[in-house]
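Example 3.2
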Amino acid sequence: MTGASAPAGELSALLGAVELLRDEVAATRLPLALPEAAAANKARIELLLQLDDYVLPRLRSLDAPLLAVVGGSTGAGKSTLVNSLVGAVVSKSGVLRPTTRSPVLVHHPSDERWFVGDRVLPGLARVRGADNVEDPSAVRLVAVDALPAGLALLDAPDIDSVVMTNRALAVQLLGAADLWLFVTTAARYADAVPWTLLRQASDRGTSVAVILDRVPREAVGEVQDHLGSMLKEQGLMLAPVFTIAEVPLGPQGLLGPDEIGRLQGWLVALARDAKARAIVVRHTLSGALDSIDGRIAALAEATGEQHAATNALGRVADAAYAEAADGVRSGMVDGTLLRGEVLSRWQEFVGAGEFFKQVESTVSRWRDQIVSAVKGKPAPAQELGEALHSGVAALVTAEAQAAAAKVARSWRGMPGGQLLLDATPGLGTVSPQLSEGVERLVRDWQDDVLDLVRSEGQDRRTTAKVAAYGVNGVGVVLMLVTFAYTGGVTGAEAGIAGGTAVLGQKLLEAIFGDQAVRSLAAKARNALLERVEDLYAADAARFREAMAHVEVPRDQGRRLSASALKVKAAR
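Structure, written as tokens:
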């Protein structure tokens, strides 16, 4: 139930539900510049203003005077009409446009208490007096005895003003109206801009009266008929139409009683009839409340689009870094890490022979086959370990660089992506902390491998063998065996790498046994991959952090819809 007849309990419940709705609308965020986001944000602001400027004030004071906002196109004669209705120049008029730069609210002196505070239009300051103060951030209050109590007229800026702030203010004021007095002329009544607002008024149930100004007497019938058909098309066939003929103005620039008498009589009767005022208020208030469902549904849909866009951006980042992790996994098993410096250091390490002095003859024969194929000076295990370190670090870094570049390329073509890239320079490359992170990762992984060697060599026999060969030496061989697969090695390297894999494995089997070596290699590989995934997750987090200021709460759409349902249930 809505209106003056609503019981106090029901009205209180409705007011509480609308206040909750208002808070949800105010908290709603649509930060991503999606194709429909600008329109959705505009609609959100319009709804919030109407709730603040009209719905909540009216629910809190149903007996307040009827507020009639006089709005229309540039030069339609709004200020002249207001001045004529009260019989005094209270609103500036003239030929220079725009004339009305700040709203003028005219009321009876006994109704002043309703307008001096922030009951309506809380975002605008108050200025009193009839002097022509031009301040678009304030409402100028003018008290006149000629206007009957119970009715206030608000002269609004032009709805098609060349000044953007004036246009926005005019739309805001129309949203605060119990009654919109739409002023147009015979020459401009079919203009597009006012009809857009009239359609909006019709959709939202706003009470409208049309003043057709400056109509040549010979064209009154024709213009009225055409205007009437247009109003019918927009669902405003019940809107009263008042025609004012084109006549010379009086000494003060006012219209005479013959021209405005019918409109003035209608407004006076409305002001003096509490029941008639209540009908207008109830119609407009109900219309505003009826419009909530559709407007909230649109906001919820826009919220869903925001979620979909941010999810898509996040999925791209996740997929790119998952692909990078797969690249590292492939690089570990396809022989990539046995090329270049690693292969050279392994050959030197094998050729030195120091590590293999105590290895069984079968293993020695494998070693001899490798040694016969390579030349080089003896090299300690440390140099092979460093070569492995560098190879792993280069692989991990290269995949991270590729992932960051791929995310940036993808985001540039996605809704909202370019905005995030512009706001966060450097997203398209790896973070400055990555190099340090990679170095730490490889060191920590090498420690993991040494821990595996120590842990596996705990029985007396194995401990002796590990001690004889050295933990670091055994650890280096285990690292190499972890990568020693020839899938990606071709040409002359294939035979060498293949021998490398077999020799390394045979050496470790002589120490730990066949099954233990396979287990150790798998554990070492998994330990590295886990560290790589953690590192990539940290680097990918930069993209998530960039998204953080544009992500909307997961329950935003649900909360909006729930608040609209509560309003509906309370009516």
